[in-house]
Amino acid sequence: MGSVSGRTVLITGAARGIGAAGARRLAAEGAKLVLADLDAAVEKLAGELGQVAVRADVTKPDDIARMVDEPYRRWGRLDVLFNNAGVVRVQPMFDVTEAEWDRVMDVNLRAVFFVLQAAARRMLAQDPIPGSELRGKLIQTASIAAYRGGNHLMTPYSASKAGVVSLTRSAAQALA
Q1: Is there a domain that residue 175 lies in?
Q2: Does 46 reside within a domain?
Q3: Mean of all residue pLDDT scores within the chain
Q4: Residue 33 in contact with residue 9, Cβ under 8 Å?
Q5: Mean pLDDT throughout 7-18?
Q6: Which DSSP string do the residues of the chain spell out, in sequence order?
Q7: Which of 40, 78, 137, 174 is 20 to 30 A off residue 122, Cα-Cα?
């Protein structure tokens, strides 16, 4: 992966799971982190790691703008977006309501797109990462369920993660 020492990283969904594990690893390797999550546990984790916490809802445009602005406000740039926020609801396919479907899609797909878009716009305007031709790196968390179709107990989740794979490929083409 290369050195992340001194690099600025924004992690969404940082309070628990993959986001928290990634934060611990990146902090140990010397990255400067903005940890974003709705969950108050993000503040505890940021304190433990000596990093910055932002309480944010990735489905709200004002919160997206605030969390993307934070690394620029503190350090003048954003080197890596780790777009990780996500939700899953395990239930039979025929029990999924429109509201449950919409919540999973809003967090797992719609928000991923708009966070990626906001970060990419800012990255395009900044100088390249020192020692690189890249202006930033965009990482989205998907799932093997995107490729396998998951199972009938995670239909909205699987569909949302397949969408993440597709939008990541589209962004790669647009930003190459």
Answers
A1: no
A2: yes
A3: 95
A4: yes
A5: 98
A6: ----TT-EEEEES-SSHHHHHHHHHHHHTT-EEEEEESSTHHHHHHHHHT-EEEE--TTSHHHHHHHHHHHHHHHS---EEEE---------GGG--HHHHHHHHIIIIIHHHHHHHHHHHHHHHSPPPTTSS-S-EEEE---THHHH---TTSHHHHHHHHHHHHHHHHHHHHH-
A7: 40
Is there a contact between 67 and 119 (Cβ–Cβ < 8 Å)? no
Span 126-135, average pLDDT: 92
147 catalytically annotated: no
The answer to the question of residue 3 being in a domain is no
The model's confidence at residue 1, banded by pLDDT at 50, 70 and 90, is: very low
Catalytic residue among 157, 159, 161, 168: 157
- The encoded tokens of residue 44 equal 């505890």
Number of domains in the chain: 1
**Residue 163: which CATH number?**
3.40.50.720
